[in-house]
Amino acid sequence: MENNHPPYVITIGRQLGSGGRQLGEMLSRRLDIPCYDRELILIASQESGLCRDVFEKADEKNSYSFFGGSMFSFRSGLFGDNTHNYLGNETLFKIQSDIIRQLSERGACIFVGRCADYVLREHPRLLRIFVCASMHDRVRRLAHDMQTGEKEARTLIEQTDRKRADYYNYYSNRTWGAAASYDVCLNSSLLGMEEIVAFISGIVAQKFTG
To answer: Whole-model pTM?
Structure first.
């Protein structure tokens, strides 16, 4: 853990199958700082007292629109088994955003997805990364990881990318995957993951810990 410097934060946006989550995990080991991906859903559930399913429904894997779907109903034991409760997606996003800010204040860390680069846009020591890859490599990686066919993998990639873009664009008013939205954009089809980790680690050393 970085104890001798003010905390810095790395955020990773990624196309499905590009290796963004793997990059976060490898950087976590290399830099000895925590990486938060889907763990944020569990933490948000624990901190808020709301069931995990509520945050799953409002996760970046789901579609977002300015014209609908901003409210949903759920059942929670906190309010009685027979009580329907209504929360807007924006409320759940705020809860998760507050968790992201709190974690960033505790020490250096990495966030994968969840619009963290936008949530932490005022952070003075922030490195925003986006990872992409060729469709061929993405399909091959996902088909291998999920033990499925390439056709199914391609369909999932197209659906997930669209939903991640909807989520990011909806909350940030920026464009998901556009170079202007990030500090560094990397193509994992051109560079091996070890090379990318070394490159990012070099930026961290120069910018934050040197």
So the answer is: 0.83
